[in-house]
Amino acid sequence: MVRIGAIEIDWVEEVTVFDPPELFAQMSADKLARHRSWLEPDYYDAEKGFHVGVLSWIVRTPSRTIILDTGAGNGKTRPTSPRFGGLDTPYLARLAAKGIVPEAVDTVLLTHLHLDHVGWNTVMRDGAWVPTFANARHLVSGVEMELRDPERGAAARPPASWQVYNDSVRPVLEAGLIDLVAGDEDLGEGLTLMRLPGHSAGQIGLRVESEGQVAMFIADVVHQPIQVYFPHWNSRYCEDQDTARETRAGIFARAAKENALLLPAHFGGDHGGYIERAGEGYSFRPLHSEGAEA
Ligand SMILES: [Zn+2]
Fold first, then answer.
1. Which residue ranges of the chain lie beneath pLDDT 50?
2. CATH classification of 2-203 is 3.60.15.10, yes or no?
3. Which of 96, 171, 218, 231 has most Cβ atoms within 10 angstroms of its Cβ?
């Protein structure tokens, strides 16, 4: 758990997967070698590759409980991404251990609609996918909804790609629980949305400011802390390469200036950290939270 003024930030890690160094097209053995001393063991494993935590961030303000992204979900069929299919994790028990029951969550913020960010939007009940957080408003970028909707932006994509929308987004929409956002809204209590296009066109994040401290939830703007040293590297999963670079450069500059705690969606270790100016570039200082998860 970590505190930003009056705001409490916590997380649950649903699953850990690993990406090979080829996650980054520009990766080379010598660049990796230069950074391995600090990447291991929290962020990189010589055998398995880069640690990819699939996280839900939990944000508690004096009046709200917000879940940021909902992982891959249990029991989903994912032929195009088998590592996230048919999962059976105690995600809800882990949330309960953090004092959270789904009915008490008032806001779910979906940074974008990739399969590792929306899975626990729904659970299977009596043969149908139904909303997990049945009392929560689900904030989703209008751009993102349009892009993933099989009847609209995704119409020309292969039907296998519609599955995520159909089992994890549509049931929430049909239950009337989605609020479309532009990505620059002020949510009050020091919380503002941020537009983070590139990795996905409608990706959004959340900036939190309280008592002079700042944290920024930046989703998949950056996948691995080594990118702090190589900000022009995009992951294979970034959809618009140039925009992803632009957004990352902007966020790094802003985070360094504001001394903001950066909380991406997939870092290992304690899952976040600070960015500092170092010569022409930046260096990374990991967050060491109190009572880090076992
Ligand atoms: Zn992701």
1. 292-294
2. yes
3. 218
